[in-house]
Amino acid sequence: MKLQKNVALCSGIISFVALFFSYVFRCDEYISGILVGLFSSGILICVVSIITFFNERDRVIYSLYIGCYDFMNALNANLRPDGMIAAEDIRRNFKNIIDVYNKSVYFHLCQLNILPKNTKLNKIIMEIWETARHIYLFVVEDNDKVMKYYLGDISEKEIRKNEWKYVGKESVAYIEQLQSALDKLRTYMNYYNCRKDKKETVSKHAD
Fold first, then answer.
1. Residue 79 β-bridge partners
2. Helix (H, G, I), strand (E, B), or coil: what is residue 81?
3. CA angle, 30 as apex, 26 and 35 as ends, to 5°?
4. From CA 62, how far away is CA 195, in angstroms rounded?
């Protein structure tokens, strides 16, 4: 996205500079013709870059939407039907949660960081950023305790009695906020026809 934005900006500047100098050298048909051609080419590149930027933006928004649900689903990996933590799988599952966050949430959030500030979309993205980040920090803190257990610094009795923050009240509240932000993002995508070919998939995934 950043590449398309920079290309659009540079080509737009070049186009108008060429147009200006084509007027300055209007008496010289050869130079003026070259500059007019440069102007036309720059405008074409600028338009293509803008279209590509918005298509890429919509693709990243959709990927972030799906990635956030993958992240929330990964959070449930350690939970059994009785609500107990499966200690034997906990290290592997925490690693998976962290990987999903980095690849499916954080990566796309960084791509969307170039969106104009104070826009409706940017406010939704920032809300997702803040809530997902807090949940992730709880996961990292719990994962540190698991690593201490495997290093022998914490006993099995202590690790089983540990109150996991990523499933605590604070985390649950942030997950609810994240769900609310994703509902806003889904409404935005459907209203502005982002990823129109996958509009139906967006609605079904949220259900």
1. 85
2. coil
3. 65
4. 7
User: Which amino acid appears at position 150 of this protein?
Assistant: Y
Strand partners, 85: 79
Distant-in-sequence, close-in-space partners of 189: CB < 8 Å, separation ≥ 6: 58, 61, 62, 65, 195, 199, 202
Structure pTM?
Answer: 0.80
Tell me the torsion sign for CA atoms 79, 102, 137, 157.
positive
Q: What three-state secondary structure class fits 83?
A: coil
pLDDT tens-place string over residues 151-179: 788 887 787 777 888 888 999 999 999 99
Per residue in 66-105, pLDDT (tens digit) is 999 999 999 887 665 444 555 567 778 888 999 999 999 9
Q: How far apart are CA 97 and CA 76, in angstroms?
A: 9
5, 43, 69 from 135: Cα distances, Å? 31, 45, 13
